[in-house]
Design goal:
By secondary structure, the chain is mostly helical. The protein has one domain. It is built from 5 helices and no strands. The C terminus is likely disordered.
């Protein structure tokens, strides 16, 4: 596998380590210190999921030997999105929030393991180095745009969500 093609998997793995670091930070945080790292985690996961769903999984889904793994990964993305939505509607200080977060943490770690141990190694049998190189280039551009857009709108949205939780904990 060419070095540039390998770069795509390194980008995704870097995102995985970042998410795991943020989840560990959230787990160790006091109730009143969860919001900031959770907002960052949400933003990072949303960008990561979009990249995989836009550039990576569509290339693999038509491949019969990859179909079940990809469908499972997409289901895991949806489960994580659903848990994140539940967390956004739940007060950060509640025990329920921590229980939901623990499910998210476990699911994300399982998802990372599936990708790194099964999907990434197997897909190299089917994808060309040029495909992976193109995905790496597009992913970097897409993530920069997504994170910039989220940063512009995120602080206003975060303040609004915080006010809503204060009113409806």
């Amino acid at each position: 596998m060419a070095q540039q093609a390998h770069q795509f998997f390194e980008l995704l793995k870097k995102d995985h380590r970042r998410a795991e670091q943020l989840m560990q930070q959230i787990s160790a945080a006091s109730r009143d210190q969860r919001q900031q790292p959770f907002s960052t985690l949400h933003m990072e996961l949303a960008a990561h999921f979009q990249i995989e769903e836009k550039f990576f999984y569509p290339k693999l889904l038509p491949i019969e030997d990859m179909k079940a793994l990809v469908e499972d990964a997409l289901d895991e993305h949806q489960t994580a999105k659903d848990l994140i939505s539940q967390l956004e509607r739940t007060g950060f200080a509640s025990e329920e929030w921590l229980e939901i977060f623990e499910k998210l943490d476990e699911g994300i770690r399982h998802h990372h393991e599936d990708e790194e141990q099964e999907i990434f190694p197997r897909c190299t049998q089917f994808l060309k180095d040029q495909d992976l190189t193109d995905m790496a280039r597009k992913s970097v551009q897409e993530k920069e745009q997504l994170l910039a857009r989220t940063a512009r709108t995120g602080s206003a949205g975060m303040a609004q969500r915080k006010r809503a939780r204060e009113i409806h904990p």
